[in-house]
Structures are given as structure tokens and as C-alpha cells.
């Protein structure tokens, strides 16, 4: 299991605590220090059944100047923009060994990846 996180984020700290409490092994990727590539982001959003703009933090995206139409013809531009400005990506993103991927901001999402890991 891998968790992309920002250690300053309370939701990320909560997710780490929950994963530790569940006894699952995981690796941490500080995605602000080691940003995902556009290709990695594309894989992640596809596994979640989402589009890039669905994982964008609206306020941070606006602050970073990401102002793109939210449609399929701009998908690659969204992926490139989020890769260039990772603070605009929702967090934490957690991927279980079976490929189950969630934005771990709530108990149900955390339960999905813990269950997938079991």
C-alpha cells in the first residue's frame, strides 16, 4: 500500500493513524517533495474512475493559475498542470496492493483500502 500525503494535512495524519491502527504495511510518498508525473496521475484517476479535475483542490488550483475547462479535450492539460503544481491535488491518495485507490478523506474510503489490503 502507498499513501501520497502532505504531513502538514490533518486528513493525511488521520489516514496514517488509521492505517497504522489497522496494522497494514504502507509506504509514504510526500507528493509535494516527489510529485507524481502526469502519467502516474492519469493512472491514479483512472483507477478511481475519476477525471483529473475531480482530484483538484479548487482553491489551490486557482492559486496556481490552473483555469482549464473541465472536459475530455483538456484532460492531458489537467494532468500536466496538476503534476506541475502538486499542492493542487486532493490528499491523501491511497493505493492498495490490488490497485484499489481512494482519496482517503473519510472513514468509508479508508475502510475500502484497508479491506482491499486484507
Automatic annotation (TrEMBL):
<dbReference type="Pfam" id="PF03960">
    <property type="entry name" value="ArsC"/>
</dbReference>
<dbReference type="InterPro" id="IPR036249">
    <property type="entry name" value="Thioredoxin-like_sf"/>
</dbReference>
<dbReference type="GO" id="GO:0008794">
    <property type="term" value="F:arsenate reductase (glutaredoxin) activity"/>
</dbReference>
<protein>
    <submittedName>
        <fullName>Arsenate reductase</fullName>
        <ecNumber>1.20.4.1</ecNumber>
    </submittedName>
</protein>
<keyword id="KW-0560">Oxidoreductase</keyword>
<comment type="similarity">
    <text>Belongs to the ArsC family.</text>
</comment>
<dbReference type="InterPro" id="IPR006660">
    <property type="entry name" value="Arsenate_reductase-like"/>
</dbReference>
Amino acid at each position: 500500500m502507498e499513501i501520497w500525503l502532505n504531513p502538514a494535512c490533518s486528513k493525511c495524519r488521520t489516514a496514517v493513524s488509521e492505517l497504522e491502527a489497522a496494522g497494514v504495511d504502507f509506504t509514504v510518498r510526500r507528493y509535494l517533495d516527489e510529485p507524481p508525473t502526469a502519467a502516474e496521475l492519469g493512472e491514479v484517476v483512472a483507477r478511481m474512475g475519476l477525471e483529473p479535475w475531480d482530484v483538484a483542490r479548487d482553491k489551490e488550483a486557482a492559486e496556481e493559475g490552473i483555469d482549464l475547462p473541465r472536459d475530455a479535450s483538456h484532460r492531458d492539460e489537467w494532468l500536466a498542470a496538476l503534476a506541475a503544481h502538486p499542492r493542487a491535488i486532493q490528499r491523501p491518495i491511497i493505493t492498495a496492493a490490488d490497485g484499489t485507490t481512494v482519496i482517503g478523506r473519510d472513514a468509508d474510503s479508508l475502510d475500502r483500502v484497508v479491506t482491499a489490503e486484507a
